[in-house]
Amino acid sequence: MRFGLFGKGGPDKSEAAAQANRVKALLREIADLPEAAAIAVNEILCADPACPGTETVILVMNPGEKTKAFKLAMAMAEVTPEALREALSGGA
After folding, report:
1. Which domain, by its residues, includes 79?
2. pLDDT in tens, 39-83
3. Is residue 7, in this structure, part of any structural domain at all?
4. Which residues are paired to 72 by β-bridges?
C-alpha cells in the first residue's frame, strides 16, 4: 500500500529509505555538496498519462542559496551516477 503519491509508505519503507540514502550519498559525492546542505529524495507515482509513471524528485537545500530541484524519470532503485550527472547538468 502506498501513502498518497509518495513511494515511501507501506511495507517497503525501509527499502525506500535505504534507496533514498544511497541517492543522497551519490549526489553529495558527485555534486561535492557540503555537510550543511540538506537533501530530500522522494519517489513519486504519477497517474497522469503525460507523466513517466515513477519519478525520483531531489531537492538540494544549500544554506544561502535557492533550493534546487531535479527530476529523474525513474524509480530511486534505478538511479545511477550517470543519471544524476545528467540531471545536474540540466539534461533531465
Report:
1. 13-88
2. 999 999 877 787 768 999 999 999 999 999 999 999 999 999 999
3. no
4. 56
Q: What percent of the chain has pLDDT over 70?
A: 85
User: Exposed/middle/buried for 63, CB within 10 Å: 0-12, 13-18, 19+?
Assistant: exposed
Q: Residue 51 domain-assigned?
A: yes
Number of domains in the chain: 1
Within a domain: residue 66?
A: yes
What's this model's pTM, rounded to 2 decimal places? 0.80
Residue 8 covered by a domain: no
- 28 has pLDDT over 70: yes
User: CA 72, 61, 42, 30 torsion: positive or negative?
Assistant: positive
Query: 45, 53 in Cβ contact below 8 A?
Result: yes
